[in-house]
Structure formats: structure tokens, C-alpha cells
């Protein structure tokens, strides 16, 4: 019962976010925004959808119960939700689940974006661990953490490339001591 309520709440939140993203997408494209990364977006949708399927199956099939350290995990989950809301609110109409860039748009450097370039990806990465661990779904936590790392290794460079081409992203987030250039040489 507790698991069903929890997972229904998280899924409802994600569906609401998808509705917001679709509305933001229409607005941005009406302003002249361009979409990038269409080829890998389907894999993001698949991974995120299968995460919930895997989680539900693992919890029900193995009769998982809430973790003994649930107060800590629930606190971490609530912290990620606050961070998620902060990141999405900071981007406002520019937030989307797709890579949609409005040419010459001002780069958002408020909220969590003052501290890190991709706070929402950090939050999602934490959720892929915290959400399954709340009900001891260890297989889901491990598998989807790995899949998320693979997806983000494709997604983040594609997003940054699009932002650098169409906005002042490069100036807003300069490379730290040429670290990116040195990593490319390796």
C-alpha cells in the first residue's frame, strides 16, 4: 500500500512535468527555438520508462518492503524534489525534457545554475539511486544508474554543443583551466 502510493505519486509528478515540458516546447518553437539530439531522445524515454517498470516489478516480485533506513532515504528523496523544483523553476519556460535551444537566448545562471551546469541531471542521477533504495530494489538501482550514466554521456555533450553554437554558453560557463581540452587529448 505504501509503495503503491509512493510510486503513483512519483509517476504523477513525472506526467505533470511532461505536460509542462510539452507546453514549454511549443512556446520555445514558436519563438524560433531549434531541437537537437532527436536521435538519442527516444533512448532517454525508454530508460526512464523502464526504470519505473523495473522498480515496480522488482518490489512486487521479490516482496520488497521499505528500507530500514527509510527516514534517511525519504529525506534525501525530498531534498532531490526540492532541488528538482528549484532547477525547473530557475529555467522557467526554457526547461524541457528535450534539447531545445532558442538562438541568442540569455543563459540562465540563477538558482542551482549558479553552482553547477546541469543540476537537473545531477538530481535525476541521485533519484535513480534513492528511489529504488527506498524499497530495497537494488537491481533497479544498479542497472538504471549505469544506463543513466551512458545516456548522460551522450546527452550532456549534445546539449552543450547546441548551446555553444546558438548562445553565449561558452562565455557563461568557461572551461576550467582548459580541463576539457586536456581530457580530449587523452
From TrEMBL:
Molecular function GO terms recorded: protein C-terminal S-isoprenylcysteine carboxyl O-methyltransferase activity
Organism domain of life: Bacteria
Keyword Ion transport among record annotations: no
InterPro entries reported for this sequence: ICMT_MeTrfase, Metal_cation-efflux_comp
Keywords associated with the record: Membrane, Transmembrane, Transmembrane helix
Subcellular compartments: Membrane
Annotated transmembrane regions: 40-57, 69-87, 129-154
Protein name in UniProt: Isoprenylcysteine carboxyl methyltransferase
Species of provenance: Cytobacillus depressus
